[in-house]
Amino acid sequence: MVAITVEPFILRDVDLMIGTDNYEAHTSQVEFTPTVSAVSWTGLANNTVTSQTTATWGCTIALAQDWGTLNSLSQYLMDNEGLVVPCTFTPASGQGSFAANITITPGAIGGTAGAFAVATVTLGSTKPVFTPAV
């Protein structure tokens, strides 16, 4: 058995391109997550059949609500609802980048008194394509 080494990337310095603009200064989280559904049927003879769907993807982004800056991510999400745009997520670890098409959905407005207004939004996404660094 071969021992496979591990080099996890750390999300300290990340490029996040949504459409043609760079929004890493506006975000504190980017996460592409697959969701899979399984359906099972069990007969009276205790025979079970299970079927699993192909994963559907979402891209979760946590962002600072910024309504005062021209072209902020908050404003971009509000103004472009329903649009499908390219998204590229590149951790500075130098391992490569992930690209997908995401469907824009607006984030929340408002929040708790005495705190920064933040929002988390999950955007529909195609399966991300990994491009290794060269």
Notes on the structure:
The chain is mainly beta. It has one domain (14-132): Elongation Factor Tu (Ef-tu), domain 3 (Beta Barrel), CATH 2.40.30. It is built from one helix and ten strands; from the N terminus they run E-E-E-E-E-E-H-E-E-E-E. Strands 1, 2, 3, 6, 7, 8, 9 and 10 form an eight-stranded antiparallel sheet that branches. A two-stranded antiparallel sheet has the order 4-5. The longest helix has 7 residues, at 73-79.
Number of individual domains:
1
Named CATH topology: Elongation Factor Tu (Ef-tu), domain 3
Indicate the structural class: mainly beta
Largest sheet: 8 strands, antiparallel
What's the mean pLDDT score?
93
Query: What is the string of SSEs from the N terminus onward?
Result: EEEEEEHEEEE
Percent of residues in beta strands: over 45%
Named CATH architecture: Beta Barrel
**Number of E-state strands:** 10
- Highest CATH level, the class: Mainly Beta
Query: Helix fraction?
Result: under 10%
Contiguous low-pLDDT stretches (5 residues minimum) are none
Number of helices: 1
How far is the first residue's CA from the last residue's CA? Answer: 28 Å
Instruction: Using the alpha-carbon principal axes, give the shape.
Output: globular
